[in-house]
Amino acid sequence: MASILVLASRLNGDVLPALSLLTHQVRVIPAEPAQLVTAPNSDIIMLDARADLVQAKTLCKILHATGLNAPLILVVTEGGMAAVTPDWEVADVVLDTAGPAEVDARIRLVLGRALADNAVDSRISSSGVVIDEASYSVKVNERTLDLTFKEFELLRFLAQHPNRVFTREQLLSEVWGYDYFGGTRTVDVHVRRLRAKLGDMEQLIGTVRNVGYRFNASEEAPSSARANA
User: Fold this and answer.
1) What's the pLDDT tens digit per position in 185-201?
2) Which domains does the chain possess?
């Protein structure tokens, strides 16, 4: 069973009726850029492109620019199928009239390919930082960091979404989990510890005032992002 996030152009209708006949966990939110900031993590994202192909293509680009971390499936009408090209950067395309068996098969295949791709390279490499998810190790310019489990998880999560800003509440739920009852101050403490261990690369974890934190993927992060938590 997969968790599926559906970005719907209209919330008063089924984007893909066959989904309601399957056992996957489905959450529907409006297909609007503002909604992506607080969008929950999911195994698959389905984007409703039935009504407005231009807007859907723009949203595809925004999703990739903000750090898409799940395969993207486009839901189209038969007439819209001809407009889809490789530059949409979607994992698959499905007709809104597809039956449950076809939809379920596409979900399985997309998840299978995603797992295979992740298995090929378990390392995240960005701006001099190499995070090896298989061995739970981190190197900065060939220097190994001694991180706790939560420090590793926090750095990995931020690095998986370069330049995307996360609130403290989002980081708390994504890294510590919904069953964690501590306050958001925990995030600030771990960020300070991470910066101390990163040393002269501390600018990789940037602060956006009154919002939260992000991983600065460029070689030199903006000085304004280095404000103390």
Assistant:
1) 899 999 999 999 999 88
2) 3-120 (3.40.50.2300), 123-226 (1.10.10.10)
